[in-house]
Amino acid sequence: MPATFAIGDIHGHYDRCLDLLHEAGLVNGEHHWSGADATLVFIGDYVDRGPDGIAVLDLVMRLQTEARQAEGQVIALLGNHDLILALAYRFGQGPFHDWWRSAGGIASDLKHMTGSHLHWLLNRPLMLRLGDKLYVHADAEVYYDYGRTVAAVNQTVEQIIRGNNVTNLSVLVDQFGEHRAFFVDPERAATFLATYGGSQVLHGHTPIPGMAGNSHDVTTRPFVYADGLCVNLDGGIYAGGEGFVYRVV
Ligand SMILES: [Mn+2]
After folding, report:
1. What separation in Å is there between the alpha carbon of 238 and the centre of ligand 1?
2. Domain 4-247 has CATH 3.60.21.10
3. Is this structure's pTM higher than 0.90?
């Protein structure tokens, strides 16, 4: 079985992202896919807060193509920050633009964003089930509002984010901002897995130091919690954390 890797929230830190992928053997010195038939899952939040979110989007989009040609695959989930940038781009000045700014939106990201970035963002899945792992961006319960299977959630959210119903979009963005649902109550993680399948939830969205405390190496490896049911992959790169690529299988 081909190897599977996952990487958490990049938030515009393109150079750090490349370094991590290179260390993991997934890109070569020329920044091209070198992971052969491996699977790499990006957990979302490519943009905002850090210097160059669009470069991160371009990298992920290109690696998807290159991996496919090598019989590997790059799967990229949608993060809440990615959604907000897409809405700021689509709707222009107004509530979503204000939301994006207050969420750490970077002016040059919006300036350099194109229709192809938007198209790509609007086609990102919210959830992924691969083997016995369930991948989501947020440690939140927003998913329940959109369906009781991975496929149903992805389909419902895709329709909403391509649509023009501002109320539905606002509710989605708001709920997507929840944190720590499974940390405060491990029973919620068990219920989540019973609903969507899998034996472990892999997520980002909530920097590990906020869960595990601030010991020196806390941002360099995944944080397992909720009786082993959850794995947090957010190494807090935007706040100076080193981050990591997690070898899942
Ligand atoms: Mn997030």
Report:
1. 11
2. yes
3. yes
pLDDT above 80: residue 1: no
> What is the CA(215)–ligand 1 centre distance, in A?
22
Find where tokens 């190494």 sit. 235
pLDDT at position 213: 87
Domain spans of the chain, in order of start: 4-247
For helices 150-162 and 80-91, the axis angle rounded to 10 degrees is 20
Q: Distance from the CA of 1 to the center of ligand 1, in angstroms?
A: 30
Cα-to-centroid distance, 81 and ligand 1 (Å): 6
Terminal-residue alpha carbon distance, the chain: 9
Find the 159 Cα to ligand 1 centroid distance in Å: 20
The rounded Å distance from CA 202 to ligand 1 centre is 13
What is the 3 state secondary structure string of 9-42?
CCCCCHHHHHHHHHHCCCECCCCCECCCCCEEEE
d(CA 129, CA 216): 32
